[in-house]
Amino acid sequence: MNQLLTITIDGACRGNPGLSGIGIVITKDDGESVEYKEYIGKKTNNQAEYASLKKALQIASAIDVEVTILSDSKLIANRRNNYHKMRNKKLKIAFREVSNLENHFKRVIYKYIPRKKNIRADLLANQAIDEYLKYQK
Questions:
Q1: What is the pLDDT of residues 4-13, one digit of tens each?
Q2: CA–CA distance, 43 with 114 (Å, rounded to integer)
Q3: What is the DSSP string of 51-77?
Q4: What is the pLDDT of residues 65-106, one digit of tens each?
Q5: Sheet harboring 66-71: ordered strands across?
Q6: 46 band by pLDDT with thresholds 50, 70 and 90
Q7: Which residues contact 119 (CB under 8 A, 6 or more apart)?
Q8: CATH topology of domain 5-132
Q9: Which of 6, 49, 75, 114 could pair with 11 in a Cys bridge, judged by C-beta atoms 3.0 to 4.6 Å apart?
Q10: Are 109 and 68 within 8 A, CB to CB?
């Protein structure tokens, strides 16, 4: 039996480009949730947003075939819904990688949410950066 997954994602960046982290909250329809965070190195903000999406789809592919992705990045929501063209070469590669990951799903829905509704994923992304910095001292 499939469970509907709602995935909230965020990429954080300190500087642009700068130290970056990703945060992901995967919530099943029964209310159970799984969280993921990772430091991803020096990236631009848009690269961090796409990295969070790629990792979320990789994790979700082992759980379900239908997902809803919530992001406070208009770039993600608009580009994945084909409202804007991709010009940046590095982001074009990430765009294609995400498209390939989407093939593992029956349905992927993208929705833009305001930043104030994305607090947990944002916190996780920033924690990943903070933890990296803590261990660099």
A1: 899 999 999 9
A2: 23
A3: HHHHHHHHHHTTT-SEEEEEES-HHHH
A4: 899 999 999 989 888 887 666 677 888 888 889 999 999 999
A5: 33-43, 18-28, 5-15, 66-71, 107-112
A6: very high
A7: none
A8: Nucleotidyltransferase; domain 5 (3.30.420)
A9: 49
A10: yes
